[in-house]
Amino acid sequence: MDSLIPQLLTGLAGASSLFLVASGLTIIFGVTRIVNFSHGSLMMLGAYIGWSILTRLPRDPEWFVLGILLTVLATALIGVVLEVVVLRRVYRAPELFQLLATFGVVLVLQDVTLWIWGAVELPLPRPRWLRGFVEIAGNRFPFYDLILIFVGPVVLGLLWLLMNRTRWGTLVRAATLDREMVAALGVNQRTLFTSVFALGAGLAGLGGALSLPNASANLNIDLSIITDAFVVVVVGGLGSLPGAFLASLLIGILQAFGIVLVPKITLVLVFLVMAVVLVFRPNGLMGRPQAEAREATAAAPVIRPAPRELRILGLVALVLAAAAPLVAGEYYLTVLTDACVAVIFATSLHFMMGPGGMASFGHAAWFGIGAYAAGLLMQWLGAPMPVGLLAAPILAGIVAALFGWFVVRLSGVYLSMLTLAFAQIVWAISFQWVEVTGGDNGLLGLWPPEWARNPATFYWIALALAVSVALLLRRALYAPYGYALRAARDSAMRAQSIGLDVKRLRMVALVIAGAACGLAGAIFSYSKGGIFPTYISIPHSVEALLMVLLGGLQTVAGPIIGALVYTGLADILVRSTDLWRLVLGTVIVLLVVAFPEGIAGAARRLWLRGREA
Amino acid sequence: MSVLVVQGLSKSFGGVQAVGDVSFAVAPGEMLALIGPNGAGKSTCFNMVGGQLVPDAGSVLLEGKPITGLSPRAIARRGVGRTFQITATFGSMTVRENVQMALLSHRREIWQFWRPVAGRHAEEADALLAQVGLEAQAERATGVLAYGDLKRLELAIALGNAPRLLLMDEPTAGMAPAERVGLMQLTRRLATERGVAVLFTEHDMDVVFDVSDRILVLNRGTLIAEGDGASIRANPAVREIYLGTGATSGGH
């Protein structure tokens, strides 16, 4: 009981910081409909810029406030640059490509930050006036946390005034409800979008700068805060400011008490709350159903069997791949094995995302479940590789079926967020349940049996499995099931009215995708000799998205091409430059701007030019 | 025996009664038009029959069996075909494939993972397309069709389910006048040939009087008139809601 009030206050302080970041994210989403992955990076920049400014200013309160305000202006300015240079060019692109572009920005900003400020954490020494404590109900409570507690509601109040008492705010609210109508009324969308982005970025910068006295400027802020911010925004309801505030309180207090009461599952707790909220309120606590964008999004092109030329090309590639061990050295065989894993990883995601219409932000979850299934079977029962390779997809498929019950009732961004939440839960379990999973150290000693230990043999096994999975998935897509899945995506209403069971179709797609991906995880583990929580991390999930979107959603060959290009690109970059994130991020952004339909999609368009009505 | 019997159907939205105590029946081969001014409750009625809305009270019987409150999918399975006010087709497929989907679903062949769709029931699909006059466009992408052709494709898809009852919500909305009559006469012919009962809503009175056997008039959620074209035309209550009584000047 003693710790109740201090915990509550800590929770409230945490809630304020969360709200600052989440409010910017939700405003940006409301108006531009962009899920801004780089919002965490803006907060990170806010922390670093804040550090640079505050350490150069006198340490009095008024200078502290001035420093914070300067930081806000600086991040807002960076937001403007970002919007004008990148985002403005992708508003018309499909939702997922926008997401991909913002992830490219995350990568670029990571390297830029590293380059400017270095890899060392930068703590801000608290000035004397911030170091004080206040006595509340017999407990000493940090003075700075009290300030934070007040900042949240104050910012909410100011935002409310801005949104409800100014013409600009009215436009923002109108655009959140119906941006086409706002455009039709003659409002300049460009300035509106740019200013909204500036406001959101400024809020992120404020959050970053204010986090300094309690934490430090470090390179992990971006991805750790963006998941929390996503959770808050989704729980609150996308685009809703009061919802974001309510959700920040909920999550902040939950985190504060969770650490005391159930320290083992704090990471899981947050995402569990999100999953529960989404099941009962599919649009978040205060969100409304998303209005369909009226600008007709171009219908997906008709899928036709690959032309003969492409089949021949594929066959040639396959022969070359099979012959590779005769010429390639051991290092290249490892890269090629990784490429085989990547092909399964990407084709399985494509299966549920392209024809299934369910974009997963957490595809690595299945990868990890498959890997841990194989690893634990080996550790507990001494199961050999063939058993592991068989058990991995089965277990991943079973978990996918259980998870599918939650997910098939959602759609769009909410569905993607729930997949992200699920992957984070799996990651948290693998990370925190040390007794079983080995935690951060992972499970080691998972090697192929003697007969398959030769890199060439193992590569052939991986190649055979990758080709089989890709062909089986392709087969299913051209069979009635695959067509029905696509039908449900094209028009759920029409699909139901001819008697198709849309939920069940999607559920089965999830199980198939999960099972295939689980196999990829197991193969990968055997080739690396171990399993680590990083297999389930967000960047790994994003890699799968990158491969699929690079290759293109609309063709069956797309994810394969994407997987190969991505693996090759990443390998070359990692070996040739320290700034590989910068280069990769830039390439992603350029690709999204230049080929919004992916590499295979662009090739298909050029190929078909003049051949089809 | 009537294909569809609707008895005492009612639905309220937050205290506003959208449909109150509506009853009617449709016989095989009969075309029944549901008309009325905006907000009369046509779409609500329609969606309760089609399963998109669950009625507060009343029952819907299809060939004597209750289908009240079933899901749209279950209702489709029992032999109800449907076209939508805003066309809904499978945009990533060809015209023929759209119809093939309906045929595969009707034959319970959806849950197959091996044999490709290409060529399956293609002749039957083409025959259906020929009936609605789309045979020349079978290979084309659905996304490039003209709006009137999409409406006809919807009709072919609905027929792929071998329906006993066709529900058509504003079947000619968005079409040119000449096309409208063409589509509805086509429906008329198919209804007669196949003995399909057709329930449709429509704003174009030329179309309504041209093809329907009977007309139901809804106003403010209740049925105010029922009969053939001539009796509806002569009905003073109907004239009043469509034309006004003339008692107030400046009406439209």
TrEMBL record, chain A:
Chief localization: membrane
Keyword check for Transmembrane helix: yes
Gene Ontology molecular functions: branched-chain amino acid transmembrane transporter activity
Domain of life assignment: Bacteria
Location in the cell: Cell membrane
Membrane topology recorded in Swiss-Prot or TrEMBL: Multi-pass membrane protein
Cellular component, GO annotation: plasma membrane
Keywords, sorted A to Z: Amino-acid transport, Cell membrane, Membrane, Transmembrane, Transmembrane helix, Transport
Protein name per its UniProtKB record: Branched-chain amino acid transport system permease protein
Species: Muricoccus roseus
Lineage: Bacteria, Pseudomonadati, Pseudomonadota, Alphaproteobacteria, Acetobacterales
TrEMBL record, chain B:
Alphabetized SMART domains for the sequence: AAA (SM00382)
InterPro entries registered for this protein in UniProt: AAA+_ATPase, ABC_AA/LPS_Transport, ABC_transporter-like_ATP-bd, ABC_transporter-like_CS, BCA_ABC_TP_C, P-loop_NTPase
Keywords: ATP-binding, Nucleotide-binding, Transport
Name of this chain's protein: Branched-chain amino acid transport system ATP-binding protein
Example GO molecular function: ATP hydrolysis activity
A Pfam family the protein falls into: ABC_tran
Gene Ontology terms describing biological process: D-alanine transmembrane transport; L-alanine transport; L-isoleucine import across plasma membrane; L-valine import across plasma membrane
Domain ABC transporter positions: 4-245
Any one GO cellular component localisation term in the record: plasma membrane
Gene3D superfamilies: P-loop containing nucleotide triphosphate hydrolases
Organism: Muricoccus roseus
